[in-house]
Specification:
Largest sheet: 6 strands, parallel
Strand order of the largest sheet: 1-11-8-7-5-6
Helix content: 40-55%
Structural class: alpha/beta
Shape: globular
Bound molecules: 5,10-Methenyltetrahydrofolate
Strand content: 15-25%
Radius of gyration: 19 Å
Order of helices and strands: EHEHEHEHHHEHEHEEEEEH
Distance between the termini: 53 Å
C-alpha cells in the first residue's frame, strides 16, 4: 500500500514561519501585500484564488484582488502594480484566453514582484541560479521533498511534462539540488521504463491518469502535480488511482502538491516584502 505524503503539514510549517516574518515586517511598518489579477472566471483560477486568499489570511498577508472582465486594461493594471510600493507581490492567474496579452503582461511585470515566477526575468534567474522566484508549484515539489526527508542529491529523478509553469522549473530546481534529471514529454519513447528507473517521479503532464502502475516501482517517491475534475465531481491527478496499491510514497490529489502551492506563493510574497528597503 502507498504511504501518502499530505501537503497540509508542509503548508502549516511554512505558515508558522511566514506569520512570524509578517509580524516582524508589520512592526517595521511594512504590510506584506499580494495583488491577484484575474481575467475572467476560469474555475482553476477561481479555485487557486480562493486557496491563496485563505493562506494569505493565515500568513498575515494583505490581499488586493483585481478582477478584470477582459485583458484590455491589463498593461495599465500591471504598470500600476509595478509602481505601487505598498504591493510587494503580484500573481496574474493563467492561462489567459488571449495568449499575446499574457506574454505582454509577463514582459511588463517587474520580476521583483513576480512571486509566481512567470516573467522572462524570473525564468532567467531560475536558469542561472541568480535571483528571481521559481514558479510556485515547482517550488512546492521541493518543499514536499524537504519536509519528508527525501534528499534529491545523487538521486535519479524523472519529471513528466516540460511546461514552463511546472516541468522545466522543477527539473532545474532538482538539478540544482544535485539530482540527475530526465524530462519526459510527448516526444519521449518508453516513458514507463524511464520512470521506473527513477527514485523520484514528478508527474506534471497535465493528463489525468497518464502515469499508470507500469511506470512505477516499489520504494519510489511520487509527486502528483495534476489536479483534474473527474466525471463524478471528485479531483484526480496525473497518476492513476491504482498507484495507491503500490509500495510507493505518493502525494494525494487533492491535498498534496496543490495545497502547498499557495503557501509557497505566500513565502515568495513575504520574501519580496523583506527585499524592499524602508
Ligand atoms: N499564474 C498562475 N499560477 C498558478 O499556479 C495557477 C494559475 N495561474 N492558474 C490556475 C492554476 C491552478 N492552480 C491550482 C493550485 C492549487 C490548487 C489546490 O490547492 N488544489 C487543492 C484542491 C482544491 C479543491 O479542492 O478545489 C489540492 O490540490 O489539494 C488548485 C489549483 C494554480 N494555478
Amino acid at each position: 500500500m502507498a504511504e501518502f505524503l499530505p501537503g497540509a503539514p508542509v503548508a502549516e510549517r511554512l505558515t508558522q514561519d511566514l506569520k512570524a516574518r509578517s509580524d516582524a515586517l508589520r512592526q517595521r511598518g511594512v504590510v506584506p501585500t499580494l495583488a491577484i489579477i484575474r481575467v475572467g472566471r476560469d474555475p482553476g483560477g477561481l479555485a487557486y484564488e480562493k486557496g491563496a486568499a485563505s493562506r494569505c489570511a493565515k500568513c498575515g498577508i494583505d490581499l488586493r484582488r483585481i478582477p478584470l472582465d477582459d485583458a484590455a486594461s491589463l498593461p495599465e493594471v500591471i504598470r500600476s502594480v509595478n509602481d505601487d510600493p505598498a504591493i510587494h507581490g503580484c500573481l496574474l492567474l493563467r492561462p489567459l484566453a488571449d495568449k499575446a496579452a499574457e506574454e505582454a503582461a509577463g514582459r511588463l511585470l517587474s520580476p521583483d514582484k513576480d512571486v509566481d515566477g512567470m516573467t522572462p526575468g524570473s525564468l532567467a534567474g531560475l536558469l542561472t541560479g541568480r535571483g528571481g522566484f521559481a514558479p510556485c508549484t515547482a517550488q512546492a515539489c521541493l518543499e514536499l521533498l524537504d519536509y519528508y526527508g527525501v534528499d534529491p542529491a545523487g538521486r535519479r529523478a524523472v519529471v513528466i511534462g516540460r511546461s514552463l509553469v511546472v516541468g522545466q522549473p522543477a527539473a532545474l530546481l532538482l538539478q540544482r539540488r544535485n539530482a540527475t534529471v530526465t524530462v519526459c514529454h510527448t516526444g519521449t519513447r518508453h516513458i514507463p521504463a524511464l520512470s521506473r528507473d527513477a527514485d523520484i517521479v514528478i508527474a506534471a503532464a497535465g493528463r489525468p491518469g497518464l502515469i499508470t502502475v507500469d511506470c512505477l516501482r516499489p520504494g519510489q517517491t511520487v509527486l502528483d502535480v495534476g489536479v483534474h475534475p473527474g466525471p463524478d465531481g471528485t479531483l484526480c491527478g496525473d497518476v492513476a488511482a491504482e498507484a495507491a496499491g503500490l509500495d510507493v510514497a505518493l502525494t494525494p490529489v487533492p491535498g498534496g502538491v496543490g495545497s502547498v502551492t499557495s503557501a509557497v506563493l505566500c513565502k515568495h510574497t513575504i520574501q519580496a516584502a523583506e527585499n524592499t528597503r524602508l
